Amino acid sequence: MLDLGRPDRLTVAMTSYNFKSIFAWNIFLYTGFLVLVGAYLIVQMTKRWVGWTGTVGTAAFLWRLILTTGTGSIFGWLVARTAFNAAMMAPLFIAMSLSLGLAIYITTRILLDIGCERALGGELVQRLAKLLGIFVATTLYFTILLHVTNIYSAARIDVERFLLIDGGIYPLMFWGGYVVLGSLVPILMVYSPSINQRPLLIGIASTLVVLGGLAAIYVIVIGGQAYPLQLFPGSVVSSSFGDGVVQHYFPTVPELLLGLGGWGFAALITLIGVKLLPILPIEDAPAGDAAG
User: What's the pTM value of the predicted model, to 2 decimals?
Assistant: First the structure.
C-alpha cells in the first residue's frame, strides 16, 4: 500500500535526475531549445522586439549544437555496442542534423510556396541549395572518418565488415541509399548550373538528402544493435537466448504508424503555424523580378 505520508516514488523518479546519464541532460536540452525557438518566433513577429531576432536566433543555433551533441553522445558513450562508443558520433550527429534540417526546410518551403501559389524564390533556394551541398559533404566526410577510425581498431573490424560489406540490407542502405542517392547525387545536383536554378529540382535533391539520412540513421541505430554483443572478446559465445547471433528487425504496423504519425503531426503543426502566424516572408522574389 502506498504511504501518503511520503512523496510518491514516481514523483521522486520524475524530479530527481541522475546527471551522470545523458538522458537526464536531454530533458533540459530539449526543453531549453523549445523555449528559445518559441522566443525566436515571438521576436520575429513583434515589431518592438524585432531587433533581438539575430541575438535570439544565434542563441537558439548554439543551443541546438549542444542539444545535438547530447544526442550523438547517447551513442558515443554507449560502450556495450561495438558499432557505437566513438567520439566521432557527436560531430557526425551535428553535421547530420544540419544537412537533414536544411533539406527538410527547403522541401517544406517549396511545397508551401506551391500550395500558397507564391513565387518560389529561386535566388534564395539556390543559395540554400549550395549551403545544403556543404552540409551534406561535411556529413559524408565525418561518416567516412568514423568508419576509417573504426577500421583502424582491430576490435571493430568485424562490425565494420558487417555494416559495410556482408551485413545484407545494411551495406545496401549505406552505400546505395546514403552514400550514392543521399549524398553524391544531391551534391552533384545542387552544384550543377542547369539544376540549381530550378527550385523543383532542388526540392528533389533535398528529398534525396532526407531519404539518404534516414538510411544512414537506420544503419547506425538498427545495424549497430543487430550486430551481436561481444560479451567475451576473443571467445565464441552462443546460447538459446541468441547470444552471438546477428538479430533481424522488421518494423511492426504500430511502429510504422507511430513513425508516420510523428511526421504527420509535425506537418500539421507547420500548416497551422503558417495559416495563423505571419512567419512566411512577404516578398521573396529576385531583385530583377521585383523591379519588373
Answer: 0.80
Rounded to whole angstroms, the Cα distance separating 163 from 166 reads 7
| Dist CA 90 CA 75 (whole Å) | 8
| Half-sphere exposure (Cβ direction) of 147: Cα atoms closer than 13 Å | 21
Could you read off the pLDDT of 174-233 as tens digits, one per residue?
Answer: 999 999 999 999 999 999 888 877 888 898 999 999 999 999 999 998 888 888 777 666
Torsion angle, alpha carbons of 202, 207, 208, 210, to 10: 130
* Alpha carbon distance 167, 77 (integer Å): 24
Query: What are the residues whose beta carbons fall under 8 Å from the beta carbon of 38, sequence distance 6 or more?
Result: none
Tell which residue, 43, 45, 41, 141, has the closest CA to residue 98.
141
CA distance 81 to 231: 10
